[in-house]
Amino acid sequence: MRSGTTWLYGQLRTHPELYLPDKKEVHFFDRNYTRGLGWYEKFFPSPEEAGAFRGIGEITPRYICDPQVPHRIHEHLPRCRFIAILRNPVDRAYSHYTRALRAGNYAHGFQEYLDRRPDVFDRGLYSMQLERYLTYFPRENFLILIFERVMSNPERALQQAAEFLAVDPRGFDGHRMKRKMNASYPPRMSSLYTSARRTEQFLQSKNLKWLLKVLDNVKITKGAKKLFELVGSKVPLPRMDASIRAKLFARYEADIAALERLLGEDLSIWKGTFEKSGAPEGT
């Protein structure tokens, strides 16, 4: 799990009082804003159907780091409420790197990756990102969860989410809640694996998930699935060098202190990990 949003999406979608679209990351307020509000509304229930739900929303993690998004959301949804899961920024940056390794998009070291992609570091500057939102929305419109605490106590995190969204916590799927969060690995045949993944993602982005199901039902994809499993077989990811971890934490330290003041919360759970070697990304 990179930062818990896929887990949270799965949980919220199981709750009968909540509605989230089939597509996890709609990206309307960043990548698709020019498509217009009509395009966005197609992902959600009609006004007549919306009354069946206590909450309607979506999950697009990238919204937190795009400086244009807070204003855009406020323009259309001024009473919007937000749930953010924040991970130790050092681990979040490394997770971004290991995802690139897994996808076959990169094959060099972590430090070189950071040098080439300064935006990866910037995405961990949480206090700066939240301050942009607080320019438009009151603090009580935000539930900020800490990833490491969600991992250790997912039941508590969902209780907090239920209280924040004013829904019955018993509506969450208990089996999904305790789903094991396994370590991830890069595929052995990364280029072929990446092509297969992109084909699947393309069909999903064009709302052609039904085609995948049809092909599956008529067994056309049986051979493709076996090939996909073969090329997707995995090898362990490298671990973060301890010296890089310490240097990266030092760069984040001031922002973490600012985040503690902003949240009124002790984040020593992050401060105590900078001397440890990095763990592989989870799914």
UniProtKB/TrEMBL annotation:
Ranges where the Sulfotransferase domain occurs: 2-189
Is Zinc-finger a UniProt keyword of this protein?
Answer: no
| Top-level taxon in the UniProt lineage | Bacteria
> Could you tell me the keywords of this UniProt record?
Glycoprotein, Transferase
GO terms for MF:
sulfotransferase activity
Query: Gene3D superfamilies this protein is in?
Result: P-loop containing nucleotide triphosphate hydrolases
- Put simply, this protein is called Sulfotransferase domain-containing protein
Q: Please spell out the taxonomic lineage of the organism that makes this protein.
A: Bacteria, Candidatus Fraseribacteriota
